[in-house]
Design brief:
Elements lengths: L2 E7 L3 H10 L8 E8 L2 E8 L2 H10 L1 H4 L4 E7 L14 E3 L2 E7 L4 H10 L10 H13 L4 H9 L6 E7 L6 E6 L4 E4 L4 E5 L11 E4 L4 E6 L2 E6 L5 E2 L4 E2 L15 H7 L1 H12 L14 H7 L3 E6 L1 H18 L3 E5 H4 L10 E6 L6 H12 L4 E5 L6 H4 L2 E4 L12 H20 L7 H11 L2 H9 L4 H12 L5 E6 L3 H16 L3 E5 L15 E6 L6 H12 L4 E6 L4 H6 L2 E4 L12 H20 L17
Parallel strand pairs: 16-17, 16-18, 18-19, 19-20, 21-22, 21-23, 23-24, 24-25
Antiparallel strand pairs: 1-4, 1-10, 2-3, 2-4, 5-6, 6-7, 7-8, 8-12, 9-10, 9-11, 11-15, 12-13, 13-14
Helix pairs in contact: 1-2, 5-6, 7-21, 8-14, 8-16, 10-14, 10-18, 17-21, 18-21
Amino acid sequence: MCGIVGYVGNRPVADILIQGLKRLEYRGYDSTGVALLSGSEIHLEKSEGRLENVEKILQAKAKIYSNIKCGIGHTRWATHGKPTTVNAHPHKTGHVVIIHNGIIENYLEIKRGLLARGHVPLSETDSELFGFLVFEEMEKGHGLIEAVRKSFSVLHGQCSIVVMSEREPGVVVGVRNGSPLVAAVDPEGGMIVASDAQPLLPFSKDVYFLEHGDMVVGTQAGLKFLSLETGKPIQRHTTRLDWSVDKLEKDGYPHFMLKEIHEQPLVVADTLNDLLDRTKSDPFPLIDEAGTRILESAQEIYLVACGTSWHSALLGKYWIERFAKIPVMVDLASEFRYREPVLRPGAVVIGISQSGETADTLAVLREMKKRGVPTLGISNVRGSSILREADAVFYTSAGPEIGVAATKTFMAQMLVMYLFAGYLGCKRSGQGRSVEDLTRSFEDLVKVPHLLTLGLDEQSKMVQQIKKAAHALTDVKGFFFIGRGYSFPMALEGALKLKEIAYDYAEGYAAGELKHGPIAMIDRGIVVVVLAPRDPWRDKTVSNLEEVKARGATILGIGDSDDVDLKDLCDHWVPLPPENRLVNTDLLPFILAPVVQLLSYYRAVIKGTDVDKPRNLAKSVTVE
């Protein structure tokens, strides 16, 4: 959620902080600030709103700040306190300056104690309180590292903090206690620490993902790691990232989201190459590792996730049950962790999180491990927290996703679900589908990158019709997305995307559920987006279309290019690429995904919203 960058070394720090925070803007924020160490004095520059506000301040004071080589910066996503300049980080308490990501759950208790001891916080935040605790410990004679360590011992809740003090200039201390922190050595001397890996890539691809309970201490000489519990030195190993700095740029696209939608053919190819052992001749040759053996042992599967990842899990349920005849339960992680699920012997719990840091999903995996239930993780970020909470992790190869609304990571998650289904189907070929069917399914899967490339061509009929519909549907009250079978999770995803970036009222429903209440909302101001490719559910979906059309709704149909009967029923029409008929209907979600993504994208562009950084949203939800 909040973005953290800290640097100490031999380079001018102001630009490092600004550029680093720009790479974290996708996480979502509503205020920003930096703290710069000049001699033995720390200067704060903060503002509500966008990072550009602070960047302009630093540019105006370039002569003052140009040679400073130690500082910390922050983008805040408001939890405690309004998004104001006063509440923006960093916070300064005497000689102590802090930035913070996460929530201090016992902040009221801490605040009462501080007020009783005569301290007066300036902000409404829980974050500032930690600065007072560190200040008190240093006033007792402790050094910065020990003061931070002792102060953390009274906190409840998951958070990460980076601290500096005017009494120990040139020292930056970071602590991970839940929310992610990543550090790297600057080859020119010093270190950089951040809440995500992107700001580190210009310095090094070999990064340290801090573990829960780690402290990192940076100086011009480099960095070291200490145990938060004992204060003793500990060893940590680097993770090599295969991301490149150029992948973080827009490459001529107006928005990261559009670029990432168009990267999906490559994402499918890369993820296939990384997760399959192509030296084997059998279909769905999943790589042989610990996670594969856990998956193979499953007698029933629980998929837990949040948001878009939950939609990929819903598709996984269809595929795994169809291919392998293994019962699959799908839960929202935030609900699963607070009920009392009954898991039988042979159950495997799989957590899906694009960032690998989703708090609710990690909590489920952590609890399952305590209960002795085998767990797997699916993530796009190597070295993220899910690696430590799950027994094994399968990584997608989508590369960094900057747009807050998930697109290419959703595509990659769907692909992992399909691979799991195919692999388990092969292992249980006598119970599910035949080997011949699975072989054809795998051969069709390999065609998906090519089909996506054809469909995403700017001159394709599909893209042109999506643009036309987005422009035509301007004065409407809201959208209902409906579908059956595989198209139901895609309807949920289409509605979510439209809400996320275009701020349209949108709901997704199983088409058969319309008569059970939602149809009361249908009138001339509502657009019904009907996902009805030729699949086993197409005819039933069309009958539901007739019901909403009779009540005056505007119909946007999405279906096969040669489905004239469906097209004639629709006010607006988006044809799928004609080549989609070359693959089996199980793969239709891969073709539908860019359709609903592009519809939301062009709606957002027309309305003038901030496509890559939609309001109130964070890329990685690291708190409950």
